[in-house]
Amino acid sequence: PHPQPEREGMFHRGSGLNLTSGQYTAPIAGYYAFTATLHLVRREQRRKRQPCRGSRLRVLICVQARCQHNSNLETVTWLESGVGLFTISVTGVLYLQAGQYASVFVDNAADSPLTVQSGSDFSAILIGV
């Protein structure tokens, strides 16, 4: 039997995704297509400083939490100053050994905090061995 979705509109098939840890663990060695789409809200800055000309934001999908190595997918965007809702996506193919995991990381170089909103998604599909 397949695990049941936690909420309406959520598709979850297979046993590799752990919703508690946010990690996808490869059941077998192979090439996996990963996609993460994050809906983020940028909150107001707590301290009033000089206006920021923009801040760098990276979203990564990393194998075994090793984001500084070549075993990751990455997208980078520049945020303009201000608050609001925006969406950022990263997609690509990674090779995972059986038992290795991949997870999503957000590297926020902005002065203000970001909150991941519901409706964000993370998926992995085995495409070849």
TrEMBL record:
PROSITE patterns: C1Q
Domain C1q: 1-129
GO biological process: negative regulation of gluconeogenesis; positive regulation of D-glucose import; positive regulation of insulin receptor signaling pathway
InterPro entries membership: Adipolin/Erythroferrone-rel, C1q_dom, Tumour_necrosis_fac-like_dom
GO-annotated cellular components: extracellular space
SUPFAM superfamilies: TNF-like
Domain of life (superkingdom): Eukaryota
Molecular function as annotated in GO: hormone activity
Parts of the chain that traverse the membrane: 24-41
Cellular compartments annotated: Secreted
Keyword field contains rRNA-binding: no
Protein keywords: Disulfide bond, Glycoprotein, Hormone, Hydroxylation, Membrane, Secreted, Signal, Transmembrane, Transmembrane helix
UniProt main location, coarse: secreted
Record bears the keyword Membrane: yes
Family statement: Belongs to the adipolin/erythroferrone family.
Protein name: Erythroferrone
Provenance organism: Phaetusa simplex (large-billed tern)
